[in-house]
Amino acid sequence: MAGSRRLTVDGLRVAFGGVEVVRGVSFTLDAGECVALVGESGSGKSVTARALLGLAGGTVTADALTLDDTDLAALGERDWRRIRGPRIGLVLQDALVSLDPLRPIAREIDDPLRLHSRLTRPERAARVLEVLDEVSMPSPETRSRQRSGELSGGLRQRALIAAALALRPGVLIADEPTTALDAEVQRQVVDRLARLRDEGTSVLAISHDLGAVRRLADRVVVLRDGEAVEQGPTEQILDAPTHPYTQALVAALPHGKPRGTRLSAVAAGRRNSGTPTPQAPTAESSPVVLSARRLTRRFGDFTAVDDVSLELRAGETLGLVGASGSGKTTTARLLLGLDAPDAGQVALLGAPWNPLPERERRPRRAALGAVYQDALSSFDPRMTVGRILVDALTAGRATRPGRARLPDVERMLREVGLDPAVAARLPRTLSGGQRQRVAIARALAPSPRVVVCDEPVSSLDVTVQAQVLDLLDELQRERGLAYVFISHDLDVVRHQSDRVAVMSAGRVVEQGPAEQVFTAPEHPYTRALLAAAT
Amino acid sequence: MTMIAALPRVRFAPRVPALVASVLLLAVLVAAVWPEVIAPVDPLAIHPADAFQAPSTAHPFGTDDSGRDLLARVVHGARASLLIGVAATAIGVALGLVLGIAAAVGSRITDIAVSRLLEVLFALPGLLLSLVIIAFAGPGPIPATVAVGLATAPGYARIFRSRIRAVASSEMVEAARVLGRRPSVLLVRHVLPNALAPVVVLATLGVGQAIVWASSLSYLGLGSPPPAPEWGAMLEAGRTYLAVAPWMTVFPGLAIVATAAATTVLGRALTARGRS
Question: Which string of b and e fits A383-410 if b means at least 16 CB within 10 Å?
């Protein structure tokens, strides 16, 4: 069985209203093999996968589209229903929205069994528990009665995999199965999928996370604008890519790139800053611009931030890492003065900052900026980019970009590598990368000394992430900015930070120079975190 | 997400009902502004000889017990009904806005006081609340308008309160706070415009409801007094002759239903557009 051809895709084309989004993609999938489709958003990965399930919509054509001996191209909707579930399983990316919040997961997993098998009710119940056990769900009996809202992200993802596996399909399609999961949980999910593959299931993984792809996939197909630009064995593609696009994709990964080296090609639009100058090591003598002393914040019985002390010097980046729920964002809110600590103090530029009445903080707010993960929701949806920037430039005195202010707005947009014409657009009409650039421009408008970046690149494609990280670096060098850089992505933090603080359960368990923390971690938690990510 | 984006966009035609509603409302609007254009006959002119005439070419909607032309009366009644509907909604929205803002951004005590008051008002059905208000203020078109407006205010206040609170706790307002904006600037520049936009649409829905309520009050003899052409009052006048002259109730009734339905359909269409 191992090694036999499962799925053949030859010259697959999918068009929506005359626009082709998948343009002649070909690949094969053997039994017990994992093939990964990689590429950025809009490259046609998900549409390709959905075409294999008859769910793409639009106009699907292919020279050959076969599953074992079945010609998928000739199937009608009724026939598809006998393929989906029993023969091809699908694991979606967002387990929170893919599971019905009102039904226990046992019923979600039971659905395919009820519809496609002749098992009796007790047999189905037994199979549900069995499959939950297969995906390493802890205490499956109890968990099966819980609803998706009661489960953590990792457990939800496992429940979704279990639902896809209930009918033992020969082919499993996993669409971004690890996105939005913590490193540790990601590793568990990847391991689980790898085990399935070893047991003979063919896995088609769709991912933009090249780290997960390296651990899971035997072969990689690189998609760009609906075309497969390169495919081959994983090692070969990731270590010695031949196509320029794949090279750019791999080069954009921050993994193993020391601090201060560029990740992206020199940005178009921004003035050519020439060869990257290595980061000047921040002197121990530079002044402390932001400090937190013994910060504690409780919500009821839950201590979100527990006795946290941090120090940020001018011109340096302090990385803050930890799993979700470890208190990173609460710490950021305390530093920004958006929330008051139950104990401890924050000082900005040597003067008390938090706790302090907002009225006294307000005149000094210009010194402290913020960049958020979801740039779009941090903008007023009614305001154009130009108005957003004028508002930030004039300290809120105006929002209309009059003739006098237009040059300033254009200069700011150019500085973050955007076309000045963007000023007239609404943020929601911009791409993710453009939005984040606008967010950075807004944060820098009042000329702050410190910028708190909370997961600033987490929702961006890897090449866009590289550009934004490079931009942050350049601006730091030019303006002597100090960053607090929060991320759950260890590679990103390592690349971006001078010093790193590792958080777990509200405490800073380890703090020190980035290289030291990453190469010689002292605390067991840091070691576990690093082990999960490699 | 991706899957939904990949699905072909289904284009059924929600625009047809909205279009019909717009045309209907336009007709009502013309009737309200220039009733003479549609019905040149005097709606108050009595012709006892022509009483109880069934719809005919001379009187398309028939005549009433005093021989008045019903088409003219229905057309001339549009102004009163529309005015009451819009004015009552405006009163409701304005009062709701004041209460909603007070509850949302005021102190905890203000919030508790306003919220409890709203709950008490909610306990009474809206029409009953208007009746209570008219019991104090006496009947007439203006008290009826005010009564309907006051009765709808609690609903708007609730919505404003929750909308304002939701927007006030959004990341975008937080971002403005980080930039050092004062609370007054936050409220006026960011919170209110974003909180109110959806309510404008909701108010369109409210106009239809207010027209029905105001007509109900007139029907009970608490709104416009006869012989003024007002749809609710006309219903009441026709009630006695329902067996002999059903057109006396049917046509004003249809006018109420059509106007209320048209504003509702249009309001819903606007809501749907706001969502997409």
Answer: bbbbbbbbbbbebbeebebeeebeeebb
pLDDT reported for residue B244: 86
With beta carbons under 8 A apart, name residues in chain B contacting A396.
Answer: 176, 179-182, 185, 189
**Mutate which of B1, B7, B11, B172 to test chain A, going by most A C-beta atoms within 10 A?**
B172
Where is mean pLDDT largest: A90-94, A400-404, B179-183, B268-272? B179-183
Contacts of B191 (CB under 8 A, 6+ apart): B164, B167, B168, B173
- Cβ burial A206-219 (10 Å sphere, 16+ → b, else e): bbbbbbbbbbbbbb
- Across the interface, do A382 and B172 touch by the CB < 8 Å criterion? no
Q: B261 in a domain, yes or no? A: yes
Q: What distance in Å separates the CA atoms of residue A327 and residue B138, rounded to the nearest whole number?
A: 62
Structure tokens at A198: 């070893």
Q: Is the CB of B178 less than 8 angstroms away from the CB of A365?
A: yes
Q: Report CA-CA distances (Å) from A139 to A115, A134, A155, B26.
A: 26, 12, 11, 65
pLDDT at B275: 56
User: Would you state the pLDDT for residue B8?
Assistant: 43
Please answer yes or no on whether B175 and A57 come within 8 Å at the CB atom. no
Q: In whole angstroms, what separates CA A449 from the centre of its chain?
A: 28
Best of A380, A447, A461 to mutate (most B CBs within 10 Å, chain B): A380
Whether B48 is covered by a domain: the verdict is no
Does residue A381 sit at the B interface (CB-CB below 8 Å)? yes
Strands A288-299 and A227-233 turn out to be: unpaired
Q: What angle do CA A131, A137, A142 make, to 5 degrees?
A: 95
CA A96 from centroid of its chain's CA atoms: 16
| pLDDT over 90 at A371, yes or no | yes
Domain that holds residue B270: 73-275
**CATH code for position B114:** 1.10.3720.10
| Pair B164, B192: CB distance under 8 Å | yes
Q: Rounded CA gap, A382 and B271, in Å?
A: 17
Residues A203 and A20: their CA atoms lie apart, in Å, by 26
The number of folded domains in chain B is: 1
Helix axes A183-198, A524-533, angle to 10 degrees: 40
**Cβ atoms < 10 Å from Cβ of A203:** 24
B220: in domain? yes
Model pLDDT, residue B6: 40
Cβ distance B193 to A56 less than 8 Å, yes or no, reads: no
Please state whether beta strands A5-16 and A64-67 pair in parallel, antiparallel, or not at all (unpaired). Answer: antiparallel
Q: Is residue B255 part of a domain?
A: yes
d(CA B152, CA B157): 9
Task: Write down the residue that tokens 């913590």 correspond to.
Answer: A182
